[in-house]
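Nitrate reductase
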Amino acid sequence: MHTFYDFITGPLLWISFLVFLAGSVYRLVYAYMEAKRRDQFVLVYWSWKHVLRSMAHWLVPYNTMRWRTTPVLTAVTFVFHILIFVVPIFLTAHVMLFNQWLGLSWPTLPEAVADILAIVVVLCCGYFIWRRWATPEVRYVTGWQDWFMVGTVLVTFLSGVLAYHQLGPYQIMLYLHILAGEAFLVMIPFTRAEHMLYGLFMRGYIASEFGAVRHCKDW
Protein backbone atom coordinates (compact mmCIF):
# COMPACT_ATOMS: atom_id res chain seq x y z
CA MET A 1 0.00 0.00 0.00
CA HIS A 2 2.92 2.33 0.66
CA THR A 3 4.13 1.68 -2.88
CA PHE A 4 0.74 2.81 -4.22
CA TYR A 5 0.86 5.93 -2.02
CA ASP A 6 4.35 6.73 -3.28
CA PHE A 7 3.11 6.30 -6.86
CA ILE A 8 0.07 8.59 -6.58
CA THR A 9 2.00 11.26 -4.66
CA GLY A 10 5.03 10.94 -6.91
CA PRO A 11 4.95 10.00 -10.62
CA LEU A 12 1.16 10.23 -10.99
CA LEU A 13 1.07 13.67 -9.39
CA TRP A 14 3.81 14.96 -11.68
CA ILE A 15 2.00 13.50 -14.68
CA SER A 16 -1.14 15.31 -13.55
CA PHE A 17 0.73 18.61 -13.31
CA LEU A 18 2.31 18.09 -16.73
CA VAL A 19 -1.03 17.25 -18.37
CA PHE A 20 -2.57 20.30 -16.71
CA LEU A 21 0.22 22.62 -17.84
CA ALA A 22 0.52 21.21 -21.37
CA GLY A 23 -3.26 21.12 -21.80
CA SER A 24 -3.63 24.66 -20.50
CA VAL A 25 -0.96 26.04 -22.85
CA TYR A 26 -2.51 24.20 -25.79
CA ARG A 27 -6.02 25.41 -25.04
CA LEU A 28 -4.91 29.02 -24.57
CA VAL A 29 -2.86 29.05 -27.77
CA TYR A 30 -5.70 27.35 -29.66
CA ALA A 31 -8.23 29.85 -28.33
CA TYR A 32 -5.98 32.75 -29.37
CA MET A 33 -5.48 31.37 -32.87
CA GLU A 34 -9.20 30.67 -33.31
CA ALA A 35 -10.12 34.16 -32.11
CA LYS A 36 -7.59 35.64 -34.50
CA ARG A 37 -8.92 33.55 -37.39
CA ARG A 38 -12.64 33.99 -36.78
CA ASP A 39 -12.83 37.52 -35.42
CA GLN A 40 -9.75 39.64 -36.04
CA PHE A 41 -11.44 42.65 -34.48
CA VAL A 42 -10.98 40.98 -31.09
CA LEU A 43 -7.34 41.95 -31.21
CA VAL A 44 -7.86 45.26 -32.99
CA TYR A 45 -10.27 46.60 -30.38
CA TRP A 46 -8.72 44.95 -27.34
CA SER A 47 -8.47 47.65 -24.68
CA TRP A 48 -6.61 46.96 -21.44
CA LYS A 49 -8.12 50.08 -19.90
CA HIS A 50 -11.63 48.72 -20.35
CA VAL A 51 -10.57 45.17 -19.44
CA LEU A 52 -9.06 46.20 -16.11
CA ARG A 53 -11.95 48.51 -15.32
CA SER A 54 -14.46 45.75 -16.03
CA MET A 55 -12.55 43.20 -13.96
CA ALA A 56 -12.34 45.63 -11.05
CA HIS A 57 -16.13 45.77 -11.02
CA TRP A 58 -16.78 42.05 -11.55
CA LEU A 59 -14.31 41.01 -8.86
CA VAL A 60 -16.23 42.90 -6.18
CA PRO A 61 -19.28 41.01 -4.83
CA TYR A 62 -22.61 42.69 -5.62
CA ASN A 63 -20.89 45.42 -7.64
CA THR A 64 -22.58 44.41 -10.90
CA MET A 65 -26.22 44.06 -11.87
CA ARG A 66 -25.80 40.32 -12.42
CA TRP A 67 -24.29 39.78 -8.97
CA ARG A 68 -27.07 41.79 -7.31
CA THR A 69 -29.90 39.86 -8.98
CA THR A 70 -28.67 36.53 -7.53
CA PRO A 71 -27.43 37.39 -4.02
CA VAL A 72 -27.19 33.83 -2.64
CA LEU A 73 -25.50 32.45 -5.75
CA THR A 74 -23.10 35.39 -5.71
CA ALA A 75 -22.06 34.75 -2.11
CA VAL A 76 -21.60 31.01 -2.64
CA THR A 77 -19.74 31.52 -5.92
CA PHE A 78 -17.23 33.97 -4.45
CA VAL A 79 -16.62 31.87 -1.34
CA PHE A 80 -16.26 28.67 -3.38
CA HIS A 81 -13.82 30.05 -5.95
CA ILE A 82 -11.65 31.68 -3.30
CA LEU A 83 -11.49 28.62 -1.07
CA ILE A 84 -10.72 26.02 -3.76
CA PHE A 85 -7.47 27.93 -4.27
CA VAL A 86 -6.71 29.05 -0.72
CA VAL A 87 -7.26 25.72 1.04
CA PRO A 88 -5.10 23.49 -1.21
CA ILE A 89 -2.31 26.06 -1.49
CA PHE A 90 -2.03 26.84 2.21
CA LEU A 91 -2.89 23.45 3.68
CA THR A 92 -0.07 22.29 5.95
CA ALA A 93 0.11 18.77 4.49
CA HIS A 94 0.35 20.13 0.94
CA VAL A 95 3.06 22.64 1.82
CA MET A 96 5.02 19.83 3.48
CA LEU A 97 4.86 17.83 0.23
CA PHE A 98 6.14 20.78 -1.79
CA ASN A 99 8.92 21.25 0.74
CA GLN A 100 9.80 17.57 0.39
CA TRP A 101 9.82 17.65 -3.42
CA LEU A 102 11.12 21.12 -4.26
CA GLY A 103 12.48 22.51 -1.01
CA LEU A 104 9.83 25.25 -1.09
CA SER A 105 7.66 26.32 1.81
CA TRP A 106 5.36 29.18 2.76
CA PRO A 107 3.01 30.11 5.62
CA THR A 108 0.13 27.70 6.20
CA LEU A 109 -3.39 27.88 7.57
CA PRO A 110 -4.01 26.59 11.10
CA GLU A 111 -5.36 23.06 10.75
CA ALA A 112 -8.63 23.91 12.49
CA VAL A 113 -9.21 26.84 10.13
CA ALA A 114 -8.36 24.76 7.06
CA ASP A 115 -10.77 22.08 8.26
CA ILE A 116 -13.62 24.57 8.60
CA LEU A 117 -12.89 26.09 5.20
CA ALA A 118 -12.83 22.65 3.58
CA ILE A 119 -16.24 21.90 5.08
CA VAL A 120 -17.49 25.21 3.66
CA VAL A 121 -16.34 24.08 0.19
CA VAL A 122 -18.28 20.83 0.65
CA LEU A 123 -21.40 22.83 1.56
CA CYS A 124 -20.90 25.06 -1.50
CA CYS A 125 -20.72 21.96 -3.70
CA GLY A 126 -23.95 20.77 -2.12
CA TYR A 127 -25.58 24.09 -3.01
CA PHE A 128 -24.39 23.88 -6.62
CA ILE A 129 -25.71 20.33 -6.95
CA TRP A 130 -29.07 21.32 -5.48
CA ARG A 131 -29.29 24.37 -7.78
CA ARG A 132 -28.50 22.38 -10.91
CA TRP A 133 -31.19 19.89 -10.01
CA ALA A 134 -33.88 22.16 -8.57
CA THR A 135 -33.70 25.12 -10.98
CA PRO A 136 -35.28 24.16 -14.33
CA GLU A 137 -33.37 26.67 -16.48
CA VAL A 138 -30.07 25.61 -14.92
CA ARG A 139 -30.86 21.91 -15.13
CA TYR A 140 -31.68 22.33 -18.84
CA VAL A 141 -28.15 23.51 -19.65
CA THR A 142 -26.40 21.12 -17.25
CA GLY A 143 -24.44 18.32 -18.89
CA TRP A 144 -22.34 15.43 -17.67
CA GLN A 145 -19.24 17.65 -17.52
CA ASP A 146 -20.93 19.91 -15.00
CA TRP A 147 -21.90 17.00 -12.75
CA PHE A 148 -18.45 15.45 -13.09
CA MET A 149 -16.73 18.74 -12.31
CA VAL A 150 -18.65 19.57 -9.15
CA GLY A 151 -18.62 15.90 -8.12
CA THR A 152 -14.85 15.73 -8.40
CA VAL A 153 -14.40 18.83 -6.26
CA LEU A 154 -16.89 17.47 -3.73
CA VAL A 155 -15.12 14.11 -3.49
CA THR A 156 -11.72 15.80 -3.20
CA PHE A 157 -12.67 18.00 -0.26
CA LEU A 158 -15.08 15.61 1.45
CA SER A 159 -12.60 12.73 1.42
CA GLY A 160 -9.94 15.12 2.72
CA VAL A 161 -12.16 16.13 5.63
CA LEU A 162 -13.03 12.51 6.40
CA ALA A 163 -9.37 11.47 6.25
CA TYR A 164 -8.37 14.35 8.54
CA HIS A 165 -10.97 13.33 11.13
CA GLN A 166 -10.26 9.63 10.48
CA LEU A 167 -13.90 8.90 9.75
CA GLY A 168 -14.23 5.72 7.74
CA PRO A 169 -11.29 3.74 6.33
CA TYR A 170 -8.41 6.20 6.53
CA GLN A 171 -6.28 4.87 3.68
CA ILE A 172 -9.21 4.68 1.28
CA MET A 173 -10.25 8.24 2.11
CA LEU A 174 -6.67 9.45 1.70
CA TYR A 175 -6.20 7.72 -1.66
CA LEU A 176 -9.59 8.95 -2.84
CA HIS A 177 -8.66 12.49 -1.83
CA ILE A 178 -5.39 12.39 -3.75
CA LEU A 179 -6.80 10.72 -6.87
CA ALA A 180 -9.82 13.02 -7.05
CA GLY A 181 -7.59 16.06 -6.67
CA GLU A 182 -5.35 14.85 -9.48
CA ALA A 183 -8.38 14.10 -11.65
CA PHE A 184 -9.64 17.64 -11.14
CA LEU A 185 -6.25 19.06 -12.06
CA VAL A 186 -6.15 17.03 -15.28
CA MET A 187 -9.69 17.85 -16.34
CA ILE A 188 -9.36 21.64 -16.02
CA PRO A 189 -8.14 22.27 -19.60
CA PHE A 190 -10.58 19.79 -21.15
CA THR A 191 -13.94 20.46 -19.46
CA ARG A 192 -16.00 23.50 -18.54
CA ALA A 193 -13.55 24.05 -15.72
CA GLU A 194 -11.49 25.68 -18.46
CA HIS A 195 -13.23 28.93 -17.51
CA MET A 196 -10.44 29.11 -14.93
CA LEU A 197 -8.11 29.64 -17.91
CA TYR A 198 -10.38 31.65 -20.19
CA GLY A 199 -11.83 33.98 -17.58
CA LEU A 200 -9.48 36.87 -18.34
CA PHE A 201 -9.93 36.53 -22.10
CA MET A 202 -13.72 36.23 -21.99
CA ARG A 203 -13.97 39.22 -19.69
CA GLY A 204 -11.49 41.08 -21.90
CA TYR A 205 -13.48 40.35 -25.05
CA ILE A 206 -16.75 41.54 -23.54
CA ALA A 207 -15.21 44.56 -21.83
CA SER A 208 -13.37 45.69 -24.96
CA GLU A 209 -16.47 45.36 -27.13
CA PHE A 210 -18.69 47.21 -24.70
CA GLY A 211 -16.14 49.83 -23.70
CA ALA A 212 -14.09 50.47 -26.84
CA VAL A 213 -16.77 49.79 -29.48
CA ARG A 214 -20.20 50.40 -27.94
CA HIS A 215 -18.94 52.93 -25.38
CA CYS A 216 -21.07 51.54 -22.57
CA LYS A 217 -20.61 49.58 -19.36
CA ASP A 218 -20.66 45.79 -19.15
CA TRP A 219 -21.52 45.54 -15.46
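thats it. The mean pLDDT is 90. The domain at 2-213 is CATH 1.20.950 (Fumarate Reductase Cytochrome B subunit). bye
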